[in-house]
Amino acid sequence: MTKLERVDEANKVIEAISRHGRRFFHHDGRVSRFELDARGRVWLIDKYSGNRVYTHYPYRWKHFSEGGTLKALCEGLRDYIRTGEPIRREWFGPFPDWRCDGDPWGYGTEGMEALRADIADLPAVADAKTA
Prior knowledge:
The chain has three helices and seven strands, in the order αβββββαβαβ. The protein is globular, with a radius of gyration of 14 Å. The relative contact order is 0.19.
C-alpha cells in the first residue's frame, strides 16, 4: 500500500470517529483530514480552524482544536501513514469499568460499538501483535 493510500485509510478512521458519539473531528459539516505535502510530510487539516496542522512537531500543535488523547491518536495515524504500522484496536475499547466508568471517549456503549463496527475492516487499525 502506498503512502497516499494509507492517507485515505487514516482519513476513513477519522471520518468514522466523526460520525459517532460526541463526533470528535467534526464541526459544522467539516471533518478533519490528513494530507501529504510535496515532501511527503503528514499534515492534518483541522475541522474547526480549517488550518493545516504540522503533525511532526513534538509539542503542542498550533491550530489543533482537539485534546491530548486525540492528538496521540493522530500521531498513531500519522505513523501509520509514514510506516504502514497500524494503530491498535484497543484505542476503541471495550474498556474496563474502572477506566472512566468504561467510557473514556464519552461515546456511550452503543456509540463505541457502532464506531468499532465501522472501523473493523480498515487496515489502519489492527489487533496488537502477540510476542
